[in-house]
Amino acid sequence: MSTAAAAAPSRPNPLAAFYASTIGKKWIVALTGLGLIGFVIGHLLGNLQIFLPPDYINTYAKKLKDLGPLLWIIRFGLLGIFVLHVVNTIQLRQRSAAARPEAYAVERKKAASKASLTMIISGLILLAFIVFHLLHFTLTVIPTKDIHVLDPLGRHDVYRMVVGGFQNPLVSIFYLISMGLLCMHISHGFQSVFQTIGLRTRRLSGPLNLLSNGLGWFLFLGNAAIVLAILFGLVK
Questions:
Q1: CA distance 17 to 214
Q2: 194 in a domain, yes or no?
Q3: d(CA 122, CA 182)
Q4: Fewer CB atoms near the end CB (10 Å): N or C, the chain?
Q5: What is the number of domains present in the chain?
């Protein structure tokens, strides 16, 4: 082998280079954000079946359970998307803070500290909510009324489990607060996606604001309706 060939540098992996770049991380945050928003919308539409006769949501839950290992692959895939989203969001914030001029940093220190504190608190509450939600309704390890009851067809009675879960006022309040924070994040993040992919123009800024705010309110009110209807005995 010639000396020149031995000394030739190896080509960088284009995917690794894209992932390491700022624009790459912005695209990853945008695409994973869209994926998570899609999941939240689908999750809500499935859960709204609580307003129908119990057979509907129990059949829906049974179909999901019948996916078997595929269901766990989907769950781990969602977890991977969530981790990618969070990690790259943190890295982008760190890069943005490091790139600010010193004078700008001093001028905005107080506001940035308040914003950072708010994001940390809301982020920790959302993380606690995700863990609690998985333990509560997915893994069913948190004691809940009617959590292991079967319906007349011998299926897990998800209808009664959900009703029993939200009859607890503390659980319902925690869900409402968490949903409010989540929907605020989604509303802001949905706008950021269009800015990242270059579609947020001055002309479209107004409609996009309305669309993102409408999406946030739709998700919050839909989830809140389930919790409050059960808490106040309208669904039982």
A1: 37
A2: yes
A3: 9
A4: N
A5: 1
- Answer yes or no: are the C-beta atoms of 191 and 200 closer than 8 Å: yes
Question: Phi-psi bin for 147: left (phi > 0), alpha (psi -120 to 50), beta?
Answer: alpha
Short-list 18, 23, 15, 14, CA closest to 198: 23
Confidence of residue 197 (pLDDT cuts 50, 70, 90): confident
With a cut of 60, say whether residue 218 has pLDDT above it: yes
The C-alpha atoms of residue 56 and residue 226 are separated, in whole angstroms, by 15
Query: Which residue bears the tokens 């769950």?
Result: 75
pLDDT tens column, 26-49: 899 889 989 989 999 999 999 999
Helix, coil or strand: residue 107: helix
pTM: 0.82
- Chain centre distance of CA 191: 15
| Residue 10, domain member (yes or no) | no
Measure the CA–CA gap between 110 and 231, rounded to whole angstroms. 40
C-alpha span between 62 and 67 (Å, rounded): 9
Give the residue numbers spanning the domain of 56.
Answer: 15-231
CA dist 228 and 235 (Å) reads 9
Residue 145, token pair as written in the block: 């009324």
CATH of the domain at 215: 1.20.1300
Q: φ and ψ at 80, to 5 degrees?
A: -65, -40
